[in-house]
Amino acid sequence: MSNRSFTQHALSDWMQGTGPDADIVISSRVRIARNLLGHPFPMLATNQQSQEVMERLTSVGNSGRLNEIGRFETIPLSDLNELERRVLVEKHLISPNLANESRCGALVLSDNESVSIMVNEEDHLRIQCLYPGFQINEAWELASRIDDIFEEEADYAFDERRGFLTSCPTNVGTGIRASVMMHLPALVMTQQINRILSAITQVGLAVRGMYGEGSEALGNLFQISNQITLGQSEHEIIDNLHSVAKQIIEHERAARERMMQQESRVRLEDRVFRSYGILSHASIMDSKEAAQRLSDVRLGIDLGLIRDVSPQVMNELMVLTQPGFLQHTFNEKLNMDQRDIRRAELIRQHLGRKSDHGGV
């Protein structure tokens, strides 16, 4: 079993369920993409060129300036096995793209896992800062500070007209992707979500699932992020996302209040407690059903319908029930059917129901 620190616990600090509006906003993230001047972008670089970039950037990552922010560990991807890389993806600490780059990729990770710096992903450098709850401005300030440290030591590829140059044209300009992960069950249940999401896309924002582009919005979790990186300043991008996210929070709160009114409350309670009962006793649970029922129970916790389970347990189960972490937890390679059985067992244990089904 791996003794890497990131495999020893499911929850990073940013997933603890704290922070402003944490009942709706799971996390706030800012990611900055940069490339080094005079070096081919990763997709065109040779192994030797990629190795040179990795050594250059990880040396900055190990510098005293970065340690002023916190303690960091440099992890070459070549030192990790497939399961360890999968766990990092499931914890949102690296992208699937970097997980597949095991030759010259590296991760510079803070000890609280709130900062992850990816080297030789799609771009030479991707700085990611994660905060719990609705703290997008705080995430931007920290990411900008780290960006300044790297820029003092390395010349970035920059064009006066186009801004920072990136591998993907959609990142050219500021190179910034800011996002908030939001739990929006009431908007889904009241069938308002499509109208809300349609309005979001019209103001230059994108909506994705929990794991970014191409992922499904399981468990009523939606990642709202900027689409535009060129033609707006960093502060305009952050302010636009902050303003829209604030409005979504208000809509979700209003929908929850309506659902708690007497004529709707019985149906809501029935849904929440059915999911709680199934999670507490089921012997088999696939990932899609687990995500939906965990969402129901989390809503019940946030509305005070369930009082003996903490939101932190729900956050932890969101990660623990993913395929990579399941296999790490049970220290065995599992096929799909085996994962469904183990997932149900793990959920029962965390909700206080042991695997022997011994009583209610």
- The N- to C-terminal Cα distance equals 34 Å
- Per DSSP, the total helix count is 13
Overall 3D shape: globular
Write down the Rg.
21 Å
Going by helix content, strand content and strand pairing, the class is alpha+beta
Residue share in helix = 40-55%
Compile the SSE list and pairings.
Elements (H helix, E strand, L loop, with lengths): L24 E10 L12 H15 L2 H4 L4 E5 L5 H9 L5 H4 L6 E5 L4 E5 L5 E8 L3 H18 L4 E2 L3 E2 L11 E8 L1 H5 L3 H9 L3 E4 L12 E6 L7 H26 L2 H20 L5 H16 L8 H10 L2 H8 L5 H15 L10
Antiparallel strand pairs: 1-5, 1-8, 2-3, 3-4, 4-5, 6-7, 8-10, 9-10
Helix pairs in contact: 3-12, 9-10, 10-11, 12-13
Protein name: Protein-arginine kinase
InterPro entries: Arg_Kinase, ATP-guanido_PTrfase, ATP-guanido_PTrfase_AS, ATP-guanido_PTrfase_cat, Gln_synth/guanido_kin_cat_dom
Pfam families: ATP-gua_Ptrans
Q: Main attributes?
A:
disordered C terminus; 8-stranded antiparallel sheet; 360 residues; globular; alpha+beta
What does this protein look like?
By secondary structure, the protein is an alpha+beta fold. It has an eight-stranded antiparallel β-sheet, with helices on one face. Strand 4 and strand 5 form a beta hairpin. Helix 3 packs across helix 12 and helix 9 packs across helix 10. The chain is globular. It starts with about 25 loop residues before the first strand and ends in a 10-residue tail after the last helix. The C terminus is likely disordered.
